[in-house]
Amino acid sequence: METLTKKPEAVVKLYDEKAKLYKFIMNDKGPLQGLEAIGNTLQKLGLSKNEIRVYIYLARTGMRKASEISEAISLHRTETYRILRDLEKIGLVSSVFEKPLKFVATPFEKTLDRLIGSKKLKLQSLERKKKDLVDLWVSLPKLKGKFVKREIFQILEGEEQVNLKAEEISAKTKDEIWVFLCDSDISCFYHSGFLDKLEKIAKRDLTVRLLTSDSPKSRFFLRKLQLPDVKCTYSIDLPSFIVVDQEELLLSIQRNNVQKSDIEKKKERIAALWTNYDAFIKILSTLFTELWSTKMEVELKR
């Protein structure tokens, strides 16, 4: 049987954040997929959907009049002019001194550099202002009243927010942190850098226990870690959770009764519940202890 092969330059490798997978797109057969991935990236860098439509059309077709762009992408001419001016202000479009006035797009690679650089500058500015803002907050007159610790909970949506919360509570570890990761979540926590942070916590002579469902996938990631207390148990249908010092709990709540494939599960919006509710924490801690001491333990060979 003849094997069909493609030259490396005919393939583009892109990372799909929603599916948590790398996709290989054929340059000659996947232009729509490629444009969709580019559009998603530009949107994350701050451009609106119509700004992306205008920029991509102009970048792909070369110098154009506003009326030509408006007609080609079915956008009102007034809106098209406004977008072109907005893109020009941030250096993604230039005007050509001709009559009638024409526009040309900044090369795509330079556009990415500009947008990424702009994001970095905004973050650096916020970092510089952080101390002043904190000092200003502390200087505000305090309202009278006795502080009462209450049991509360918080629902977080989106992988970024869940990862940030996991890092936040783990950084406050004073004595111990217990982590149970189900098979479908371990890759997310690995790529986010959370498992690397567990290694740093363990180096502070604090107790770090990591428990996962036993699978080839879990073993693959666990072998990359340098944690003293790692165990696998036989596959258990439980959500991932993190318990810190018996005081805080972060629990994955992305679970459905309907059976779905791994890819379908990855496409679902990730969500988690954080709480300091003592009874809830005790229940999950007891469960973790039982799983940790179970005779069904599987030795992890590195």
Query: How would you describe the oligomerization state of the chains in this entry?
Result: single chain
Q: Could you say what the CATH topology of the largest domain is called?
A: Endonuclease, Chain A
Structural class of the helix and strand makeup? Answer: alpha+beta
Q: CATH homologous superfamily of the largest domain?
A: Endonuclease Chain A
Strand fraction equals: 15-25%
Largest sheet: 7 strands, mixed
Helix proportion: 40-55%
Spans where pLDDT lies below 50 across 5 or more residues? 1-8, 255-267
Rg, rounded, reads 25 Å
CATH class of the largest domain: Alpha Beta
Write down the overall mean pLDDT.
Answer: 82
> What is the succession of H and E elements?
EEHHEHHEEHEHEHHEHEEEHEH
Total helical elements: 11
Task: Note the overall shape.
Answer: elongated
Assigned CATH architecture of the largest domain: 2-Layer Sandwich
State the end-to-end distance: 40 Å
Strand order of the largest sheet: 6-12-11-10-7-8-9
Number of E strands: 12
